[in-house]
C-alpha cells in the first residue's frame, strides 16, 4: 500500500475550505493534513506539516496566494511544495502571476469534484495541470501583458521540431492535438515535451507556456 497524498487546503472562505477537505478526505489515496484561511498560515503550516501539495486560493487576507506560492514553490526555494491554485477565473486577474510564482497548475472553483480530485492527483504525481481550453483563455486574457524578456533568445537550445512543439503547447494544444497536427504519435509528442523541459530547465508544461511567451516564441 502506498501512503496517501498529504494535502494542505488553504482558502479564506470556510464553506469552500470545508467542502474541499470533505471531498479530498473521502478518497482512500488522499489525506487532508491541515486547513487554513490565509497565505501566511499556509506557508507556516506547510513548513510545519510538510504536505505533498497545497490546494491554494489566490485572493486571501494577510498574504495572498501568489506570494504564498512564491514562498513555497518559487525559484530558489530549497524544498519546494507542489501548489494547485484554485480560482474564480473571470474575477481573478492574477492567475498568470501565480503560475510564474511556481504553481504547478490551476482549476476553477466551480469545477466538479472529479476535476478537483484529478487535479490533485495530477499535480501530486509531478505533472502540470493546465487544461488546454483554460490555457487558451489564459493566453487570450494575458497575452498583451506577457512581454518578451529583455534579450530573449529564439529558443536556440531547441531543435526546429522541438520549437514547433513548444509553440503548439503555448497555444493550448493537448498532446493528442499536437500529435494530430504534426502527424506523429502521442508517445513521440511526450518525448519531445520531455526533451523541451530538460533542455530549457523547466519544471513542467506550465513553465513551458510561460517561457514561450516570455521569450517571444509565440504572440
From TrEMBL:
Domain Response regulatory per the UniProt entry, residue ranges: 6-124
Keywords: DNA-binding, Phosphoprotein, Transcription, Transcription regulation
PTM sites of type 4-aspartylphosphate: 57
HTH luxR-type domain mapped to chain residues: 151-216
GO biological process: phosphorelay signal transduction system; regulation of DNA-templated transcription
A GO molecular-function annotation: DNA binding
Residues making up the signal peptide according to the UniProt record: none
SMART domains referenced in this protein's UniProt entry, alphabetically: HTH_LUXR, REC
InterPro entries: CheY-like_superfamily, NreC/VraR/RcsB-like_REC, Sig_transdc_resp-reg_C-effctor, Sig_transdc_resp-reg_receiver, Tscrpt_reg_LuxR_C, WalR-like
SUPFAM superfamilies noted in UniProt: C-terminal effector domain of the bipartite response regulators, CheY-like
Family matches, as Pfam families: GerE, Response_reg
Taxonomy, superkingdom: Bacteria
Protein name, entry field: Response regulator
Organism: Actinomadura physcomitrii
Amino acid at each position: 500500500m502506498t501512503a496517501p497524498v498529504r494535502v494542505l487546503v488553504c482558502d479564506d472562505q470556510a464553506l469552500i475550505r470545508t467542502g474541499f477537505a470533505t471531498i479530498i478526505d473521502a478518497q482512500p489515496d488522499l489525506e487532508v493534513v491541515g486547513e487554513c484561511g490565509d497565505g501566511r498560515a499556509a506557508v507556516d503550516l506547510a513548513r510545519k506539516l510538510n504536505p505533498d501539495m497545497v490546494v491554494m486560493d489566490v485572493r486571501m487576507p494577510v498574504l495572498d496566494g501568489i506570494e504564498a506560492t512564491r514562498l513555497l514553490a518559487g525559484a530558489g526555494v530549497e524544498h519546494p511544495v507542489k501548489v494547485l491554485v484554485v480560482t474564480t477565473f473571470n474575477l481573478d486577474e492574477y492567475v498568470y502571476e501565480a503560475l510564474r510564482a511556481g504553481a504547478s497548475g490551476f482549476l476553477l472553483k466551480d469545477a466538479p469534484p472529479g476535476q478537483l480530485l484529478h487535479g490533485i492527483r495530477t499535480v501530486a504525481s509531478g505533472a502540470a495541470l493546465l487544461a488546454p481550453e483554460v490555457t487558451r483563455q489564459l493566453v487570450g486574457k494575458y497575452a498583451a501583458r506577457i512581454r518578451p524578456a529583455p534579450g530573449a533568445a529564439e529558443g536556440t537550445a531547441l531543435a526546429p521540431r522541438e520549437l514547433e512543439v513548444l509553440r503548439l503547447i503555448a497555444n493550448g494544444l493537448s498532446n493528442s492535438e499536437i500529435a494530430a497536427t504534426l502527424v506523429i504519435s502521442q508517445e513521440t509528442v511526450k518525448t519531445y515535451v520531455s526533451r523541451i523541459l530538460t533542455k530549457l530547465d523547466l519544471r513542467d508544461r506550465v513553465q513551458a507556456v510561460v517561457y514561450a511567451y516570455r521569450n517571444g516564441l509565440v504572440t
